[in-house]
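quick one, two chains, predict together pls
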Amino acid sequence: MTEISLHIMDLVQNSIRAKASFIDIEVSESLQKNKLYIQITDNGIGMSADVLKKASDPFFTSRTTRKVGLGISLYKQLVEQCNGTVTLTSHEGEGTKLSSAMDLNNIDRQPMGDISGVLVLLIAANTGIQFRYSHTTEKGQYVLDTKEIKNTLGDTPVNDPGVMKFIKEMIHENLQEINIQS
Amino acid sequence: MTKVKSLADLKKMQEDLQAKLKVRERGTDPEGYVRIKVAMATCGIASGAKGVMEFLIDELDKRNIDTLITQTGCMGYCYAEPTIEVTLPNKEPVVFGYVDIRKADEIIEKYIKNGEFVEGIIPVNYESIDNN
C-alpha cells in the first residue's frame, strides 16, 4: 500500500463486510499541531471484545479464504512509523470505530493519494450504503454525503460512469478549495 | 477563479443525463448484463485493483458495453491479484488472475466481446465469493 487513500479503501472494506449501512470517514489535518487525524466509523455488526483484541493481529482474520488479515495491521504499522496511534473500539450490534492520529510532516507518512477516486469507487460499488466523508483543514471543511447525492440524482444511478466522473471531479475540486496538505 | 463543482451542478448534469440514459434504456434484469466483480481486499488493493476497476468502468462505457461492475472480497488467490470475476449473460462466472490494465483490455476485447477465453483463468474451486 503506497497511499493513505488506499488504506482508507481497505479499511472501509471491513465496514462493508460488517454489513454497515452507514460509513463515516473523517479526515482532519492540522498544520499547527502537525497532525493528520483519520477516523472511520460504521454501524455494522461490530466485534466481540475477544475478536477486537485480535483485530490488529496480522495472523487473525474472519475470512475463510486465507489465514492472514493484514488490513488493520498494515495501517497500524504506517501510523506508528509516523509517531502515531490507532485506536479501535467496537460493540457487537452497534458498530466499530477506528481512530488514528499521525504526524503530518513525518518522512514515512504516505501521501493521501487519489482520495476522490477511492471515494467514488466505494460509492459506486456499494450503492446501498450511505457514505459520509468530511475533510477538515485550517482553511475550511468539505463534507460529502451520499444521501444528498442520491436526493439530487433521483432515479439516475450513482454508478453511471458520467455521474462517477462528475462526483470525482467535484470532490477533487472541493478538496483543492480547502487547500489539503496531506 | 474557476467555479468549484457543487450538487447544484450535479442536478443540472443529471437532467442532461436522464435523456441519454433513456436512449440507452438498460434492461432491468441484471442477468442480461455483463457482470464484473473486482476483488478489493487488502491483497487486491495493494496489487492495483483500484486502477483496474477505474479502467474497466471507463473503457466499458467508452466501448458501449452495458456492465454491472461491483467489488468483492478476497477469493483466496492473493498470489494472483488483481483478480476479477466476469459473468457473461447466461454463462458461468470466470475468474481471471494477474489482471493489469493490458490484461483487462484483452479480457474486454476477447472474452467480453467475443466469448474467447484468454490466458490467466483461475480454475473454479470456490463456492461463491460472497460467502467468503
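Chain B touches chain A at residues 4-7, 9-11, 13-14, 17-18, 20-21, 38, 40-43, 45-46, 50, 53-54, 57-58, 61, 69-71, 73-76, 78, 126, 132 (CB under 8 Å).
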